[in-house]
Structure formats: structure tokens, C-alpha cells
Specification:
single chain; alpha+beta; three-stranded antiparallel β-sheet; globular
Length: 107
């Protein structure tokens, strides 16, 4: 099982709304994530907008590709893109995820 951690930055003026949206993630989005192999997925948001994501999956590239093929993900990413800094190149938040290198894990 791969452990994947990534960072993004939420725009300071959208932090409260971002929290509200994630308090009510669409059930079909959650179902698609699970069906696509995303497990133990968490998002952590610091008050300055730093977002830390963590998930476990058998194959991160395959899990991302599976989500990219779903209609619900396309809708969710389109709605979430304006919340993030540094996405002015047309990429969505899911495409901007760059996994961090794990340097330690206590099993």
C-alpha cells in the first residue's frame, strides 16, 4: 500500500468556504474516490491556507487516472479549482497534486 502526501494552497479569501464545502462532500464523490482506490484519505487545512492531503492506495497513478475518468470528479474539480492558488494554468487541483517524498515512517 502506498502512502501519499501532497501540499496545495487554498486562497486566503476562500478558506471558510473551502471548509464548508468539505463538511458536505457529495456522497457520489466519496463513492467514486473509494471505488477508484483512494483509502484513508484526509485533508488538513492550516489557517494560512496550507492544505496537506494524505491517502493510501495500491497505485497512486492508477487511482488518479480512475478518478479522472469519472463525471463526478470533473464537476468537483471544476468547482474546487477557484479555491486554490497557483492553478492559473488551467490545471485542476487533482492534477496539481505532487506527492512528497516519504523520509520516515513508524510502523
Amino acid at each position: 500500500m502506498q502512502r501519499v502526501c501532497f501540499l496545495l494552497r487554498v486562497r486566503a479569501d476562500r478558506i471558510d468556504e473551502y471548509r464548508e464545502r468539505h463538511a458536505a462532500v457529495w456522497p457520489e464523490m466519496c463513492a467514486a474516490l473509494t471505488a477508484s482506490g483512494w483509502h484513508n484519505y484526509s485533508l488538513f487545512l492550516r489557517d494560512d491556507g496550507l492544505l496537506v492531503g494524505y491517502l493510501e492506495t495500491e497505485d497512486f497513478e492508477a487511482a488518479q487516472a480512475a478518478m479522472a475518468r469519472t463525471e463526478v470528479n470533473a464537476r468537483w474539480q471544476a468547482e474546487m479549482a477557484p479555491f486554490f492558488e497557483s492553478l492559473d494554468d488551467g490545471t485542476g487541483p487533482d492534477e496539481a497534486m505532487r506527492p512528497l517524498t516519504e523520509v520516515f515512517h513508524l510502523a
